[in-house]
Known about the structure:
The chain is α/β, with parallel strands linked by helices. Helix content is 35%, strand content 17%. The strands form five sheets. Strands 3-2-1-4-5-9-14 form a seven-stranded parallel beta sheet, sandwiched between helices. Helix 2 crosses helix 3 and helix 3 runs parallel beside helix 5. The longest helix has 21 residues, at 87-107.
Amino acid sequence: MILVTGGAGFIGSHVVDLLVSKGHEVRVLDLLHPDVHVRAPEYLNANADHRVVDIRDINAVASAVRGVEAVSHQASMVGLGVDLDDIVSYVSHNDLGTATLLQALHRERFRGRLVLASSMVVYGEGSYRCERCDVSVRPRPRAATDLAAGRFEPACLRCGGSLAPEAVQENAHLDPRNVYAATKLHQEHLCGAFGRESGASVTALRYHNVYGPRMPRDTPYAGVASIFRSALAAGQPPLLFEDGQQLRDFVHVQDVAHANELALASDASGTFNIASGEPRTIGTMAAVLAGAFGVGAPEPITTGEYRLGDVRHVFASTIRARGELGFRASIGFEEGISAFATDPLRASTREVNSAEMSTTAM
């Protein structure tokens, strides 16, 4: 029996589908949080054991972990959130929720495989090299004055010159720069401590920019691909922050589900970047997506706006995941982003409530 926490969510539901298709018994634990789900989504796999459980409820979680041999821990509040008013919710769901799960597993004397959904946000800014100084550089957080003046690229700390971004490796310095990022790193630390104390095998998968079917359509916690897709569907242009040249690694959710399957079956442990290994700019992603909408779709607009918690470039080295997990992304950027133009997305609670109010008013 494999337990998938957060198994009704965007990534978790794809993990469930893949595991069920491979003949595994799967138990799903999900809160169906009202900020995310107005009701149980229609895509839930009927061949899994679904339990509506708050991961912070030790009694309910203790029942859910009974008899499981492996755990895929996907449950989490995701995204940057709105502002610091979200801080208690993030820490409660992500950190306390993880601690509660680990306590329940400890009481069951769990010694199986635990796979944690982590994130590239734990790195903060990506990796850079100053060719003039011939050194690797970890730039400081960008100043609001520089961003407001349109100086988006970080500079070398020695010479002040321009930096060349490089693929970030798992052993890079970790520097979470927002509340969500801090909770993801704490989850890694908690799971690592559990593994050392219990002897269980723990793997943390640091997802890069995941996209695909079932993404939340229109919430403050949605990913940039979903936000751009929603704008285009409404006949509006995607709005690019900064100059649109930020480099990211976009990886399809089906590839991420496959990475979880590999991690659950592997003898490897530790942290792994889960990404395509082919970075693209935010502007390129928006342009490909707009192109998939066809003639007449609005073109992306570069706004120059910025968010202080954002980083400039972060993309992954996938060497370790290939070598130790056997993971290689199979869905190419153009193929995946073009298909994403028509992929089914999960409606926001606001959209569903508005539709129900309109129906009631008729």
